[in-house]
Amino acid sequence: MNQLIECVPNFSEGRDMTIIKQITDEIEKVDGVKLLDVDPGKATNRTVVTFVGTPDAVLEAAFQGIKKASAIIDMSKHKGEHPRFGATDVCPLVPVANITMEETAAYARKLAERVGKELMIPVYCYENAAFTEERRNLANCRAGEYEGLPKKLEDTHWKPDFGPAKFNPRTGAVAIGARDFLVAYNVNLNTTSSRRANAVAYDIREKGRPVREGNPITGKIKKDEKGNEIWIPGALKACKAIGWYIEEYGVAQISINLTNISITPVHVAFEAACKSAQERGMRVSGSELVGLIPLRAMIEAGKYFLKKQNRSAGISEEEIIKIAIKSLGLDDLKPFHPNEKIIEYLLEGPSEKRLVELTCKGFANETASESPAPGGGSVSAYIGALGVSLATMVANLSSHKAGWDERWEEFSDWAEKGQKLKDELLFLVDEDTRSFNRIMDAFGLPKETPGEKASRTAAIQDATKYAIEIPFKTMQKAYESMEIIKAMVETGNPNSITDAGVGALCARSAVMGAFLNVKVNASGLKDKKFVEGILKKGNEIEEGAIKLEAELLTMVNSKIS
Fold first, then answer.
1. How many other CB atoms are found less than 10 A from the CB of residue 554?
2. pLDDT at 83
3. Which of 15, 149, 193, 266 to pair with 400, CA 20 to 30 A apart?
4. Is 82 known to be catalytic?
5. DSSP H or E stretch at residue 127
6. Catalytic residue from among 16, 74, 82, 413
7. Catalytic site includes residue 400
C-alpha cells in the first residue's frame, strides 16, 4: 500500500474566496493528491485547507499552494482574530498510512528547505520537525506575530531554520511542521444536561478541572503559594473536551479533540467516557465522528472490542470495521458510511477493474477467455490466497470451539497472520497481470532512433525483472502460509483438519505454479547474476513446499483414518 500523508495549511485569507480558490486550484493541479476540505473563517480571516496524498505529491502541492499564497496575499493589509505571522501561516504534515512520524518530519524539513531557498520566505520548523525543543511549540515560533516579526528576525536566537532572516512585509514567515492526526469526536449521552456532560468532559480531558473553594462549581479557584491555579488533571493525555447540548439531536454530547491518536486512540476515549458517565448515573448511547479518520484507528478500535469479547481478530477488514462502528455506536445519530469517513477509502474513488473483485464464475470466465491475462501467475496467487484462507478459517473456528475458551488468543494470533497473508496474495493476483501488461507496454515503445532503442530495451528489462519478482513474491507468501496450515493440522479444531489439508495442497500448488512463471520470465532477463540468485532461492522454496505438503498430508490422513 502507498504511504499517505495529510497536509493542513492555514492561509491568512478567509473572506475573499477568489483568492482561496486560486490557491486550492494550484494544489489540485498536482497528480497524486486529493483536496478534502476548505474551511474559511471570516472573523479569523483565515482558511484551513486539507488535502492528502503520497508524500512527494503532497510536498509539491504544498509548495505550489505556499508559492501562490505568497504572490496573492499581502500580509501588510491583513487583520484577523487568529494569531498569524505569514501569508501561509502554518503548514503541518500528518502521517496517515504506512509512514512513521520520523519520516513525515523529514518530509516537512525537505519542504521547509525548498520554501526557504526558492521562495525566499523565512521558515520555522515546529512540533516533530523542530530542530530545537523551544521551537517544537508553535506559539513560541509565532510569538510576536506578524507585527513583531521584523524585530524577531533581527534576533540571532530566532534566526529562521530555512530562508533569509529578512522581513518581507508581503509574505511574512511560515511555520512548517509534522504532527499527529487530530480526530474530532463527539460522545452522546442519555441526558439533555450540558452541565453533566461537562462533568464527564472534565473527568477525561488532559487539562482536567480546577480545585475550587467551597462550591465545586461556582467557588473561587484555589491557588498554590506561588499564585498558580490548582488543577486536577483528567484521565486522558492528548485529549481536549467540553460538554454541550445539541438541539438538532436533542441530547448532550462530550465534544472531544484527540490531538494524538497514537497516545489516546478513539476507542480509549470512548471507554473512558463510558466509565465516567456510568459513575455519574448516565449512559453513553453512541458517538459521532466529525470529519475524517485514518483506517488504522478504525482497525485498532475493531480489534480492541473483538479481543474484549474474547473473539478472534483474524477476520476481514470489512468485518473489523463493522465491529468498530457498532461498538462505538457511530451510527447512533445518523448512518455511518466508511467510504465517506475513512481517509484511505475516500481516496480510492473509482478504481480500475480488478480480478479479485470478480465473482468466482467471472474470474474463471476471464481466465478462460482469449486474453493472455490473467494467466498462471495470477491463478497461482489466487490458489495461495484460498489455501491460507482455509487455514485462517480453521483458526477462527478453533478460537471459539466449546471447551477451548482459554485458547482463543492463540488461534486469534494465527488467524490475524492468515488474514495478512491472504490480503498480500490477493494483491499479487492483480499485480501479476499488471506486471505482464508492463512488459507489453514496454514492447510497444518507439524504436526508431538509437536513443529510443536504448530506452525501449531498458524498459523491457525493467518490466521483465518486475515480472520475475512478483511471482517470486507469490512463492514466498504461499510458502509462509504453510506455517499456519501446519499449526492448524497439529493443534486446530480436529473437525476441520481436512480443510487445513486442502490448504496445504493449495499452498504447494501456488508455490510450484508461481515458480514456473519465475523461470519463464527469467529466460528473457540479461542480468544473469540476478537470475541465478532468484532461481536458487526459488528451487529451495519449491523443495521445501513439496516436502512440507507431504508431511502435512501424512498427518491429515493418519488423523482422519
1. 11
2. 84
3. 266
4. yes
5. strand 123-127
6. 82
7. no
